[in-house]
Amino acid sequence: MSCADQIFIQNCKEILSNGVWDTDHDVRPVWEDGTPAHTIKKFGIVNRYDLSKEFPILTLRRTAFKSAIDELLWIWQKKSNNINDLSSHIWDSWADETGSIGKAYGYQLGIRHKYKEGEFDQVDRVLFDLKHNPLSRRIMTNLYNHQDLHEMNLYPCAYSMTFNVSGNVLNGILNQRSQDMLTANNWNVTQYAVLLHMFAAVSGLQAGELVHVIADAHIYDRHIPIVKEMIEKVPYDAPKFIMDRDIQDFYSFTKDSFRLENYQYQTFTEKIPVAI
C-alpha cells in the first residue's frame, strides 16, 4: 500500500466517523441542479509525505498526473490567470468571457515586489533565496492577497508554501484553507510534490518532506457513497517518480519532464459530481 493511499483512507475514515455536518446552515456551493452541496468536515488535518521514500499519488483511483502538472505549471511557471493558457477545462466554470479567473492564483505569483536585493515576483524570490540564502526561514509564497480578493473569481484554496532547507534537503509546507477530499486532495498533493522536486532539482538539493496542512477537510454529501466504496478497494504500491535531471532552469520544465513508472491503480468508472 502506498503512503498516499494509507493517509487518504485514514483521513476519510476520520471525517466520516467524527466529522461535523453543515446541514443546519445555508452554504455557498451548489450542485449542477442547483441543490445546496452540504459537507461533513474535520478541522485541522495535517499530513506528512516523505518524498525521499516514494511519490505520493493515489492508487485507489487514477490521479491524472500530467493534467495535474499542467495546472501546476500554469500557476507557477506561466503565472497565468487565463484558462486559454491551460490544456484542461477544470477552471471553465470560474472563468469570464475572456478566459480570466480574475486576480487569482498565477496572477498573484507574477506580481513583482521590492526587496533590498531588487524586484522579484514570488517564484523568482524563492529561486533566489534557495540559491543565495538557503538557510533563510523566510522562504515562502502567499496567494491570499486581501487587497485583490474582490477581483478573484475564486479565493485560493491552496494558498501558501513555506520552504525550509535542512542540510541538503528541501522541505515544504502547503497550507490549504479548504479541501474537497474526493476530487482535489490527491490532485493537490501530487502537484506540490512535483513542485518541491522542481525547486530542489534546480537548487542543487534533494526533495524531502511535504507537509500538507488542511484547515477544512470535507467530503460532499453526494460523494459519500463513492468515498466509502473507494476506501474499501485494495491499494497498490506507489509508482516510481522519474524527472529529467538535466534541467537546471525552473522555467524549462514541461509536463513531459516527469513520468511515473509502474503506476497501477484501481479501475474507477463512477462519474464524480463537482460542486461549484
TrEMBL record:
Family matches, as NCBIfam families: thym_sym (TIGR03284)
GO biological process terms on file: dTMP biosynthetic process; dTTP biosynthetic process; methylation
GO cellular component annotations of the record: cytosol
Pathway assignment: Pyrimidine metabolism; dTTP biosynthesis
Lineage, broadest ranks: Bacteria, Bacillati, Bacillota, Clostridia, Lachnospirales
Complexes and interactors: Homodimer.
Positions bound to (6R)-5,10-methylene-5,6,7,8-tetrahydrofolate: 180, 275
Active-site positions on this chain: 157
Functional description taken from the UniProt entry: Catalyzes the reductive methylation of 2'-deoxyuridine-5'-monophosphate (dUMP) to 2'-deoxythymidine-5'-monophosphate (dTMP) while utilizing 5,10-methylenetetrahydrofolate (mTHF) as the methyl donor and reductant in the reaction, yielding dihydrofolate (DHF) as a by-product. This enzymatic reaction provides an intracellular de novo source of dTMP, an essential precursor for DNA biosynthesis.
First-listed, main subcellular location of the protein, grouped into a coarse class: cytoplasm
This protein's name: Thymidylate synthase
Entry-linked InterPro entries: Thymidate_synth/dCMP_Mease, Thymidate_synth/dCMP_Mease_dom, Thymidate_synth/dCMP_Mease_sf, Thymidylate_synthase, Thymidylate_synthase_AS
Subcellular location: Cytoplasm
EC number(s) per entry: 2.1.1.45
Matches recorded under PANTHER family: THYMIDYLATE SYNTHASE 1
Domain of life: Bacteria
Positions that bind dUMP: 137-138, 177-180, 188, 218-220
